[in-house]
Design brief:
The structure is a single chain. By secondary structure, this protein is of the alpha/beta class. The chain has a single domain, classed as 3-Layer(aba) Sandwich (Rossmann fold). The chain contains five helices and seven strands; from the N terminus they run E-E-E-H-E-H-E-H-E-H-E-H. Strands 5-4-1-6-7 form a five-stranded parallel sheet, with helices on both faces. The longest helix has 21 residues.
């Protein structure tokens, strides 16, 4: 039998933003990420969810859409927090730091797509967080979009690595 982990010791899910489509519809990527975080909360793997992402091309903010998806999937509003100003991966994490500090959290589970996790974890760890990551299933994802995004990640990772992003 495993010892029970106290509420304060469980990590926080840090959900990285993705596009909001016209009419406030979440992109499939944003929907998958938010629902993965809600699943982690329902399983008791995380104590709260922090949705990250500011206003993109269409309102509302990515963080607001993440919050709505999570609450719609059973996460109470009291367990969902917003970082609603960021527009990049680095800003997602940097701007979430004050929210995490208010929660007394240094341990996070970064929720993003598998191809994006290495760069996101690089930034989170450089920002002083104890970070691990998880990715949602690609069920329902468009192969072409996923491939294009994955190909973009290699130069983005190298750029973040070389310029010291997150420090």
């Amino acid at each position: 039998m495993e010892p029970e982990v106290s509420e304060e010791r469980r990590p926080v899910a840090l959900v990285l933003g993705a596009a909001v489509w016209p009419g406030g519809e979440p992109s499939p990527t944003l929907r998958r990420r938010a629902l993965k975080a809600a699943e982690l909360w329902r399983q008791g793997a995380v104590r709260t969810v922090v949705g990250c992402g500011g206003l993109g091309r269409y309102p509302p903010t990515e963080a607001e859409v993440i919050a709505a998806l999570c609450t719609g999937a059973g996460v109470p509003e009291t367990a969902v927090f917003l970082e609603d100003r960021s527009v990049t991966t680095e800003e997602n994490i940097r701007f979430a730091l004050p929210v995490l500090a208010e929660l007394g959290a240094r341990e996070v589970v970064v929720v993003t797509d598998l191809y994006h996790l290495p760069r996101a974890l690089l930034v989170a760890r450089r920002a002083g967080l104890v970070a691990c990551g998880t990715a949602p299933s690609l069920r329902g994802a468009r192969l072409r979009s996923q491939l294009r995004a994955a190909l973009r990640e290699l130069p983005a990772y190298l750029w973040y690595l070389l310029r010291g992003a997150g420090r």
